[in-house]
Amino acid sequence: MTDLDTYLASFDGEPGYLDWAAFGPLSPVVRAEAQADTELLGSGRRTSIQLVNDHAREAQELVAGLIGTDASQVVLQPSTTYGLMQAIYGLAGGLMVGRGEFPSLTVAATRAAASLGSIAVQWLDPVDGCITPDLVRSSLSDDTRALAVSLIDFRTGYRADLPALRDVLGDRLLIVDAIQGFGTIDVDYTAADVVCSNGYKWLRAGRGTGFAWFGERALERIAPVLSGFAGIDGDLPLDVVPPPSASARAFSVSGIDTLAAARLATSLQELTEVGVATVEAELMERTRTVMYYADRYEVPVITPREPERRGGIVTLAPAPQDAAPLAASLANHGLTVTVRSGLVRVSPHVGTGADTLRLFGDALAAFSSARVW
Asked: Over the stretch 308-317, which tens digit does the pLDDT of each residue have?
């Protein structure tokens, strides 16, 4: 069992990293597992190879446990985008998508509509970028069959209310890009029909560690358009082309990267032992501290203040003339953040220490003292 103090101590990077929404430096246990499994795959022994292969099953079971579903409804993917494409390309009818969503959603929806002609994209244009239940309710039409939405908005840090969206959508499908929240906030994923995520950010498992969950309604309504030879039940299909599996396995293309599965399984096991609710409580404290410094030095914040309405992202929206000086001050103090379109995205994790947060406060203080009002 991993206690909270041990988990926090596993964040062993240098002070100054506040960019977990972009990339999560690999945890010590993930690095150790990856090295050990690489040696096993180099042995040439069938038992060693099978031992590494078995991590795929472990990863599926751990994802299912965190969602609260059966492992047969979980399929490993190379990335979040692969899972979203599997879901979106198999749809028919109207698909609601926010125009400002991360490109994994907007590009997949546009390409699917153009290439297959089976879906019609129904664009949502919220003024503040937040996909709320009220916005969805007012935008529904008789042709709407699904909504695709980010659990945590990559720009603002806004957390979508999945149960409320489910109530508005009724029997329609709810497809969720959960990469900015999975493992760090405790939500009811079963309110959705498809949940896609990846382990290379908050889970600290590295790239290639994607996965997707397809609920019963999704398995019934989404065609496995991109299903490959791995998406069947039984052995390798030689001299025959069997139908796709009735489980989430249908949304597979080829063999699984077992080293990636090992990294994912190791990360999820560590997380499961600590508990997502515990992680969320700690993360909300870190984001509260970031907001405290922003308020102290009068830097506007566009991320929702209510803990239940945000994840690990705090987005600063300085005045246009202040964006570059603020970014420079953060960089000069050794802080890593994402600066895009005049916004500064700050994303701590539970292991972000007091030293990093003090650096952040110092950077804002230096910026404020040099600011011309």
From this structure: 999 999 999 9
Residue 83, CB-side half-sphere exposure with 13 Å CA sphere: 30
Residue 94: CB partners within 8 Å, gap ≥ 6? Answer: 119, 120, 121, 122, 141, 143, 144, 145, 146
pTM: 0.96
Query: How many CB atoms sit inside 10 A of residue 163's CB?
Result: 12
What lies within 8 Å, CB to CB, of 197 at 6+ separation is 80, 83, 177, 178, 179, 182, 210, 211, 212
Residue identified by tokens 């019609």 is 120
Distance CA 307, CA 6 (A): 25
Cα dist. 326→156, 257, 372 in Å? Answer: 18, 41, 12
| Residue of 348, 337, 55 lying closest to 208 (CA atoms) | 55
- CA end-to-end span of the chain: 53
- Residue the block writes with tokens 């090992």: 262
Which tokens belong to 65? 């446990």
- Which residues, in sequence order, are bridge partners of residue 339? 344
Output the six-digit token pair for 234: 């039984």
Strands 314-316 and 173-177: unpaired
Question: Which residue has tokens 């308020």?
Answer: 295
CB 94 within 8 A of CB 122: yes
* Beta bridge mates, 17: 336
pLDDT in tens, 264-321: 999 999 999 999 999 999 999 999 999 999 999 999 999 999 999 999 999 999 999 9
In whole angstroms, give the CA distance from residue 61 to residue 55.
10
Q: Are 104 and 81 in contact (CB under 8 A)?
A: yes
DSSP 143-174: TEEEEEEESB-TTT-BBP-HHHHHHHHTTSEE
**Residues 82, 83, 89, 90, Cα dihedral to 10°:** 150
Q: Which of 66, 46, 65 is nearest to 54 (CA)?
A: 46
Cα distances (angstroms) measured from residue 11 to each of 32, 180, 262, 353: 14, 18, 19, 9
Nearest to 262 by CA among 62, 74, 53, 80: 53
Q: Chain-centre distance of CA 294, in angstroms? A: 25
Q: Which amino acid is at 130?
A: C
Task: Locate 140 and state its tokens.
Answer: 């529904």
